[in-house]
Amino acid sequence: MQMLDVKDLRKSYGDVDVLRGVNLSLTRGECYGLLGPNGAGKTTTLRVCLGLVEPDAGSISLLGLPVPESAREARLRLGVVSQTDNLDPDFTVVENLLVYGRYFGIAEQTLRERIPQLLEFAELSARADSRMLELSGGMKRRLTLARALINDPDLVFLDEPTTGLDPQARHVIWDRMKQLLAKGKTILLTTHFMDEAERLCSRLSIMDDGRIISTGSPRELITRHIEPEVVEIYGEGTEQWANVHASLADRIEKTGDTVFCYLRHSEPLIATLQNQPTLHYLHRRANLEDVFLKLTGRDLRD
Which of 61, 93, 274, 299 has the largest CB neighbor count within 10 A? Predict the structure, then answer.
């Protein structure tokens, strides 16, 4: 059984086509990433799959149940972490978990047994009686993740779970996600952090303008779309250098005062940068961010 199977999903608001034939599927135990710039349709896709927004066309099977017809039943087996924390500020850590668990009709005794394990999972055991004003941003995100697991879900939707967190807090969330995958849970992740997607996702789709434009493992997407080596060049005289030596690169992109050179063989190009005191360069392997920018563009999205 596919954990989530979406076919030809379409949604419009007035004259704006937000989703234009989206297809995706999740298999049990994988972390599937959904990437895209602001306005690409990621959050709308999640909301439609959860049955919170009705599609104009297409079919959705969520945990084997049709959506929106059986969305409520499907959501009982889901965990959801939204972009923003919606914890109750008047409750303690434990009370937030208790109240949320009651929405699923979970017996009080069962909740009391689960909560210590969830607090340990979130590294919040010492904060059980703390109120939200006493928690850092990282603590709140860990609590939100723990709360999403109160019903022992088969599938977890994580919508930009590490936005606004410092590096230490991000790594803790990543570790907890890996623990969930090790236990056989399935994760649908949206994120703007390409390193996050590259670390965690076994498969992912890049989305833009309401469409899925490429799908595969992170390594497959990099190999399919980008030359293996990248040299970033910046400093006084970069444009003049590029005008003379552009032919040494397979492909060049210019952004601000930086020239990005994509190559299969970098040695001849790097040789031209030696003894150039006003030029600085970074030589690296191609990564998922290069793929994302090539497919969706470098223009700012608001």
Answer: 93
The CATH fold assigned to 4-217 is Rossmann fold (3.40.50)
Per-residue pLDDT of the chain (302 residues; tens, 9 = 90+): 799 999 999 999 999 999 999 999 999 999 999 999 988 999 999 999 999 999 999 999 999 999 999 999 999 999 999 988 889 999 999 999 999 999 999 999 999 999 999 999 999 999 999 999 999 999 999 999 999 999 999 999 999 999 888 999 899 999 999 999 999 999 999 999 999 999 999 999 999 999 999 999 999 999 999 999 999 999 999 999 999 999 999 999 999 899 999 999 999 999 999 989 999 999 999 999 999 999 998 776 66
CATH 3.30.70 maps onto the chain at 227-285
CATH topology of domain 227-285: Alpha-Beta Plaits (3.30.70)
How far apart are the C-alpha atoms of 201 and 8, rounded to whole Å?
23
Domain with CATH 3.40.50.300 in the chain: 4-217
Closest CA to 74 of 176, 6, 20: 6
- Global model pTM greater than 0.90: yes
Give the gyration radius of the chain's Cα atoms.
22
What single letter denotes the amino acid at residue 199?
A: R
> What is each CA distance from 129 to 90, 95, 116, 151, 296, in whole angstroms?
12, 8, 12, 21, 45
In 66-217, alpha helices (H): 71-75, 93-103, 108-121, 137-148, 167-182, 194-200
